[in-house]
Design brief:
The protein is of the alpha+beta class. It is built from nine helices and 15 strands. A five-stranded antiparallel β-sheet has the order 3-4-6-1-7. Strand 9, helix 7 and strand 10 form a beta-alpha-beta unit. The longest helix is centred in the N-terminal third of the chain and has 26 residues.
């Protein structure tokens, strides 16, 4: 994962010999006063003259240096450090625009109590998740749907309550009907249920990475940068989460582009959309055969033992167990909760000791110790996924 550089512009200004402290500016001013032929009889820094100079010259100069130049102008001069509207202007320079937030849309299966009966699923019916880090995610039925007689279940189009990638949850997460539907026993999102990917408003880091990639595109040769630019223009696809396999996987001139999502698996509808754009609509190089795919997966069962601090209530012990489980699931990209938890990546090592440290930092009020039975996961061009998380008391 690429991370934007952190630059101390005040340090850079100082190293260039520009005075950036009250003392340094006063020395330079005194030199100018002497050079102009003026003489200050009372040169004490507490004299009326220097107090006036400090108020009307030195203090504004320091503000200009610290706040305007080092804190605003210089950082927003470069795509690597610019923020907000200034980064939007940098994007415009290279014919890009910040991607808007979108809502997840997909199908949820509703199951009948009696298959022989026709059932109407009302518009506005809500299907929600358990609470994940104080958030309940909700999908809402878009239009009234009839599940005809003699059908045990039906797929109903639903849309997320709000925009954001956090709603792209894997199968089984949406399973609670807060208000029951007559004749329906239960509902659940199933595998590959997403038709339209939800995404957050593109943040500064994502946009800056696309801007950087765009500089490699100007030649219009169909190198990685061109394909990365095309694929990352779609909401929910990050330019730094596209991985290429160039080893002619389907013969000469072929390559695979693997797409990694922040949350959940890569929807087949998204892959179909990308492949149609790149290949069927002719947006590829001469002789190129590029196939967009979800990353290969390696499946893992994670076993964690936890010890709680003394005098913790039974209710907190139960919620603590759930919290640990949810943090592990977040690490394996099953939700976008617990932002401080390091996610799994291909071509990397997933460290359980790091995860232990992050869990302690989050649950320090109640958690005494946590231990994982598994060794670190070393990944090639594949993404680690969960078979199961088992959290037990030590």
């Amino acid at each position: 994962m690429s991370i934007r550089p952190q630059v101390d512009f005040k340090k850079i200004i100082t190293e260039e010999g520009i005075p950036t402290t009250e003392e340094a500016i006063a020395i330079e001013l005194e030199k100018e006063v002497v050079a102009a032929g003026s003489k200050v009889s009372n040169d004490s820094r507490m004299s009326p003259f220097w107090r006036l100079i400090k108020a009307i010259v030195i203090a504004p100069t320091l503000w200009l240096m610290d706040n305007l130049l080092a804190g605003h102008v210089l950082p927003n001069t470069f795509a690597a450090t610019a923020k907000g509207i200034y980064l939007d202007l940098k994007a415009w320079d290279v014919d890009l625009a910040r991607k808007s937030a979108t809502k997840t849309r997909g199908v949820v299966a509703f199951f009948k109590e009696t298959p022989e009966n026709p059932i109407v699923i009302p518009k506005g019916t809500v299907i929600e998740t358990d609470r994940i880090e104080d958030t309940i995610y909700r999908m809402v039925v878009v239009d009234e749907v009839l599940i005809e007689a003699h059908q045990a279940s039906g797929l109903v189009i639903c849309e997320a309550e709000k925009a954001g990638s956090g709603y792209n949850l894997p199968a089984g997460y949406y399973s609670i009907l807060p208000v029951g539907v007559s004749g329906i026993s239960h509902a659940m999102n199933q595998a590959d249920w997403i038709a339209t990917l939800g995404s957050d408003l593109e943040d500064d880091e994502e946009l800056s990475l696309r801007i950087r990639n765009q500089f490699s595109v100007v030649g219009r040769y169909h190198i990685d940068a061109i394909y990365r630019s095309m694929l990352a223009s779609v909401a929910g696809v990050r330019s730094d989460q596209i991985y290429f396999l160039h080893d002619a996987p389907r013969g000469p001139g072929t390559a695979n582009a693997y797409i990694l999502m922040d949350v959940g698996i890569t929807p087949s509808h998204l892959l179909e959309q990308l492949n149609v754009y790149v290949m069927a609509q002719g947006n590829h190089g001469h002789g190129d055969d590029v196939l967009c795919l979800g990353l290969p997966e390696t499946m893992h069962t994670v076993n964690a033992s936890i010890w709680v601090k003394p005098n913790i209530s039974e209710a907190r012990q139960a919620s603590l167990k759930t919290d640990v489980e949810n943090m592990v699931k977040a690490a394996f990209r099953e939700s976008d909760s617990y932002k401080n938890v390091t996610r799994t990546y291909p071509k990397s090592t997933f460290s359980f000791s790091k995860l232990t440290e992050e869990i302690h930092a989050e649950l320090n009020d109640s958690l005494l110790s946590v231990r994982f039975d598994e060794p670190d996961i070393v990944s090639e061009l594949a993404i680690p996924r969960l078979n199961q998380v088992v959290v037990s008391y030590g």
